[in-house]
Amino acid sequence: FTAVLLAVRFYALCRLVSEIPEVCKTEDCCLGIDEAGRGPVLGPMVYGICFCPLSKKEELKDMKVADSKTLTEAERENLFEKLVEAKSYVGWALQILSPNTISTCMLRRTKYNLNALSHDTAIDLVQYALDSGVQLKEIYVDTVGPADKYEVKLSQRFPGIQVTVRPKADSLFPVVSAASICAKVARDRVVKGWNFAEDLGEVDTDYGSGYPNDPKTKAWLLKYLDPVFGYPQFVRFSWSTAQTLMDSKAVNVHWDDDEEDGEKAAQRQNNKSMLSYFSVSSGGNNQNATHQAHRFFTERRLKSLNTL
């Protein structure tokens, strides 16, 4: 599990799953859903499900599982290991949504907000459990948006299964607490072992909690803001914190468009055209001394052409 998490480079999304206990295929089961990392501007969001037979509810409760936010990291890790050891009757699955996936979805031309993404991810995980043969009779969910509307949506999507959507469900239902622990442990491990796709040298990993109001997180965002290409994939570029910094600190560029008359429109606005970052001096292939090529081009040995 740990090795897989540390090896993943998040171009899109990743699903990690446990084995399906045989007893979950023959007995009526309950399933809990929760997420970790909804608010941070850094790192992925992780959705988790945990399921077990109805006959094992008390055993799950006896593990002392609780809302992951009320536990220390060591306590969460210990409880996750207990859940793994109970593999004869406990199963889990995780959907890890990369920062790129989250931001790209939120910035679509057709509105697709974080609540819709969360709902669809939860539905996908429940469907995965059903497709795997888990005999689901009860689903418990920590609400995203209005609880009553979400409950109706899930009940219509999964007829015949009793659905309960409640605020703070992770502190009310042990099976949701277990899902919360799985999701939080996974996110913590991913963030700690993040594999930066970009060549940033020795990366400073002291980025705080990752939440927008954390001073350490703000300082990290400012330090790793590229004036042209923005942020590494670790950052949710759709978050207002990141967008505000890019608007104020990054270079304003003009995306050439025939309708806006390209370079001329950029000149009228006293702005830079995107094509200017590909241009070279009239003397040949040597870059203008005052305009060094970005590492994106030099690392790929890309050069501008004067003629075709």
TrEMBL record:
<dbReference type="InterPro" id="IPR012337">
    <property type="entry name" value="RNaseH-like_sf"/>
</dbReference>
<protein>
    <recommendedName>
        <fullName>Ribonuclease</fullName>
        <ecNumber>3.1.26.4</ecNumber>
    </recommendedName>
</protein>
<keyword id="KW-0479">Metal-binding</keyword>
<comment type="similarity">
    <text>Belongs to the RNase HII family. Eukaryotic subfamily.</text>
</comment>
<keyword id="KW-0540">Nuclease</keyword>
<dbReference type="GO" id="GO:0043137">
    <property type="term" value="P:DNA replication, removal of RNA primer"/>
</dbReference>
<dbReference type="Pfam" id="PF01351">
    <property type="entry name" value="RNase_HII"/>
</dbReference>
<keyword id="KW-0732">Signal</keyword>
<feature type="binding site">
    <location>
        <position position="35"/>
    </location>
    <ligand>
        <name>a divalent metal cation</name>
    </ligand>
</feature>
<comment type="function">
    <text>Endonuclease that specifically degrades the RNA of RNA-DNA hybrids.</text>
</comment>
<dbReference type="GO" id="GO:0046872">
    <property type="term" value="F:metal ion binding"/>
</dbReference>
<dbReference type="GO" id="GO:0032299">
    <property type="term" value="C:ribonuclease H2 complex"/>
</dbReference>
<dbReference type="GO" id="GO:0006298">
    <property type="term" value="P:mismatch repair"/>
</dbReference>
<keyword id="KW-0378">Hydrolase</keyword>
<dbReference type="InterPro" id="IPR023160">
    <property type="entry name" value="RNase_HII_hlx-loop-hlx_cap_dom"/>
</dbReference>
<feature type="signal peptide">
    <location>
        <begin position="1"/>
        <end position="19"/>
    </location>
</feature>
<dbReference type="InterPro" id="IPR024567">
    <property type="entry name" value="RNase_HII/HIII_dom"/>
</dbReference>
<dbReference type="GO" id="GO:0003723">
    <property type="term" value="F:RNA binding"/>
</dbReference>
<feature type="binding site">
    <location>
        <position position="142"/>
    </location>
    <ligand>
        <name>a divalent metal cation</name>
    </ligand>
</feature>
<dbReference type="InterPro" id="IPR001352">
    <property type="entry name" value="RNase_HII/HIII"/>
</dbReference>
<keyword id="KW-0255">Endonuclease</keyword>
<feature type="binding site">
    <location>
        <position position="34"/>
    </location>
    <ligand>
        <name>a divalent metal cation</name>
    </ligand>
</feature>
<comment type="subunit">
    <text>The RNase H2 complex is a heterotrimer composed of the catalytic subunit RNASEH2A and the non-catalytic subunits RNASEH2B and RNASEH2C.</text>
</comment>
<dbReference type="InterPro" id="IPR036397">
    <property type="entry name" value="RNaseH_sf"/>
</dbReference>
<comment type="function">
    <text>Catalytic subunit of RNase HII, an endonuclease that specifically degrades the RNA of RNA:DNA hybrids. Participates in DNA replication, possibly by mediating the removal of lagging-strand Okazaki fragment RNA primers during DNA replication. Mediates the excision of single ribonucleotides from DNA:RNA duplexes.</text>
</comment>
<dbReference type="InterPro" id="IPR004649">
    <property type="entry name" value="RNase_H2_suA"/>
</dbReference>
<dbReference type="GO" id="GO:0004523">
    <property type="term" value="F:RNA-DNA hybrid ribonuclease activity"/>
</dbReference>
<feature type="domain" description="RNase H type-2">
    <location>
        <begin position="28"/>
        <end position="251"/>
    </location>
</feature>
